[in-house]
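Agenda item 2: XIL complex prediction
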Amino acid sequence: MKQLYSPSNLCKYVLFFCLSTVLLSCKQDHQPEKVEVEPTLKEAYKNYFLIGSAVNDNQISGKDSLGVQLIKEQFNTITPENSMKWMYMEPAQGEFNFEMADRYIDFSKKNNLVFIGHNLVWHSQLAPWVNEIKDNEELSNSLKNHVQTIASRYKGKIHGWDVVNEALNEDGTLRNSLFLEKLGPEYLTNAFKWAQEADPNAELYYNDYNMTKPKKREGAITLVKNLKEQGAKVDGIGMQAHWSLEGPSLQEIEESIIAYSELGVKVMITELDVTALPNPWDLEGAEVSQNFEGSEFMNPYTEQLPDSVSNQLAKRYRDIFALFKKHQDKISRVTFWGVNDGQTWLNNWPIENRTNYPLLFDRQFKPKAAYHSVIQVAKDSTL
Ligand code: XIL
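Presented output:
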C-alpha cells in the first residue's frame, strides 16, 4: 500500500495521465469530419415550387452527358429551349416535324420531369412561310391547324403550354405582330380556345418578358382579364425573368407577383437568368431580334468572372429567391433558361460571342457561389 504512492509511482501515474490525454485528443482530431451534404435544387425547394431548366437538343440526344446529369440531379421540370417553336415544328405549311419534340417528351417521361411546352404562338422563330400568307382566312386556318395539331399530338403528355408568347408592347398595348395585324385581337382568345379543345387538361399560360414593368404589367393584366371574359381558360402567367444585377428592383418583382396572383392564376418564373455583363444602352427585356456590335468594353470577363462580380451575382440570386420563397403560395414554378454558363443564350444575345455568367452552374458544370446562396435561402428558416 505504501508503495502505491511512492514518488516514482506517482511520477508514472502523472505520465500515464498526460499520455492518455494526448492520445485521446489525437483520436478526436482524426475522427472523420462531419461533411454536410448540400441538397440539390429540387430537394431544397420541394415544399415551395417546381425548379426547372430549359434544355437543348444536345442534352436530349445525350451528347451533353454532364448537362444531362445535372438536369436529372437538380431539376424536376424542363422546357425545350428551341425545338418546339413554329419554325422547327411546322417548317413548311401543313408539314409537321415531330421527331425532336417526341424525344423531349420521352426524355421527360423517362426521367420523371414535368414537361412545359414552349410555345404555340409567337412572332419570333416563326417559319418564313407564315409571313408569306396573303389571305387572312388562310392565316387564321394555319394558326388553328398549328395549335390544334401540336396540342392534340401531345395531349395528356404536357403539363402546361406557353400558348402565347410575347404579345405585348412595352407600353402594355398589343404588339403589332403579323397575327394582330391580320387577324385582330381575337387571335389571342382563339389560340387559347383551340389549345384547350385539343388538350383540355393541360395548363395554359401567357408568357412574356419585362413583366415587372408597371405599364407592361397593366397590359398583361388587361389581356388576361379579357381572355377570361371571352371564355378562354388561362391558368398561369409566365414572367420570363431575363434580369440583370441591377434590375428589375425587388419591389417591382414583388408587386408584379402579387398583381398577377390576384387575377386568380398561377405565377411562374419561366426563363430566369441574370446577366453579369454590361448591357448596350441599358437594354431591358429579351427581344430576340435586337442585336448590337460587340466591343472589349462590352465583353470584360473573357477569362473568368472576378470575385467581386461573382459575389454580387450570388447576392442578387439570394435576394430574388428569398422573395420567391416569401411568395411560394403564388409561385408554382421557377425555371432557369439553360443549365450552365457555357450554354446560355446570353453568350450570343444581345451581342454575339461574349462570355456571360448568368446561371447557377459554371462552364465546368460546377455549382457557383450563386448556387450555394440559392440553396441557403431554401434552408434558412428565418426567410
Ligand atoms: C431563345 C433561345 O434561348 C435561343 O437559343 C434562340 O436563339 C432565341 O430564343 N424569350 C423566349 C425564348 O421566350 O424562347 C427565347 O429563347 C429567349 C427570349
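Discussion summary: The pocket of XIL is lined by residues 81-82, 165, 240, 271, 286, 288, 345 (CB under 6 Å).
Owner for follow-up: CH.
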